[in-house]
Amino acid sequence: MMKKSKISHSLDRLVDLRTRTIDTPLCPVSFIADSRALRAVILNPAGTAAGESTGTGRNPIIANAGKIINLYFSKRKMGPVLVHLFSGKAIFFSARTFMSPRTDEKLPAMEITLDLSFVSEGERSVYQRLLEVPCGYTVTYGELAMVSGYPGGARFVGNAMAKNPFPLFIPCHRVIRAGGDPGEFTSGRERKLFLLHMEGAL
Q: What pTM, to 2 d.p., does this model score?
C-alpha cells in the first residue's frame, strides 16, 4: 500500500477543518480546529455571528474549547487547564495553566491541544513561557523576552503577541509594558483592560 505524501496529509487536515463561533462577555470568539488540534482562536471575527459553524459533524476539540472559554468568563469555579502544544507531528510541550480567577485545583483538569506548527521556533519558546504566567499576574515584554532566551528582545516578544494564534488560551493580554502601562492588544486596548480587570491584575 502506498504511503500518503506530506502534501496529502496537509490537504486532509484542511478538508477536516471545522469552525464555530460563541458569544462571550468580551466579544464573539471563533474557534478553528481539525480532528487533532485547535488551529486558531479569533476574537471578534468580522462578519461571523455567534452560533455560526462550518463543516459537518461535531468536533470535540471545538466543543471542549468552547466549554473552557465559557467557564473562564463565568462566575463558576473551574479546574486547571492542561495545554498541549502540537508541532504538526507530535505534542512537544504541555503546561498546567490557571486560566481563570476562579480556578480550583481540587476540580478535574480540562485539556486542550493547540497547533503551533505554523509559528517560528522563537515564537514557540515565548508562548511556552507565557503559559507559566497565571491568572491575576502580568509580565513585561522585556521579562518575557529574557526568560524565553531572548534578552533585549522586547520588540520580538511584542511581535509574537500580535501574531498569537490562540488568544485567551495563550494569555498575551497578561504581557504589559515596563512602566506598568497595559499596552496594546490586537483586538483592542479596551478588551485587554477588560480581561486584566476581570482577572484581578489591575
A: 0.88
Are 145 and 175 a contacting pair, CB within 8 Å? no
Q: Give 90-123 pLDDT, tens digit per residue.
A: 999 999 999 999 999 999 999 999 999 999 999 9
HSE, side-chain direction, 13 A CA sphere, residue 36:
16
CA distance linking residue 112 with residue 139, whole number of Å: 23
Q: Is 6 exposed, middle or buried (0-12, 13-18, 19+ CB in 10 A)?
A: exposed
Catalytic residue positions, numbered? 172
Structure confidence by residue, pLDDT tens digits, 34-50:
999 999 999 987 766 66
Cβ contact 129:145 at 8 Å: no
124-137 in b/e burial notation, b at 16+ Cβ within 10 A? Answer: bbbbbbbbebbbee
Cβ-Cβ contacts under 8 Å for 159 (sequence gap 6 or more): none
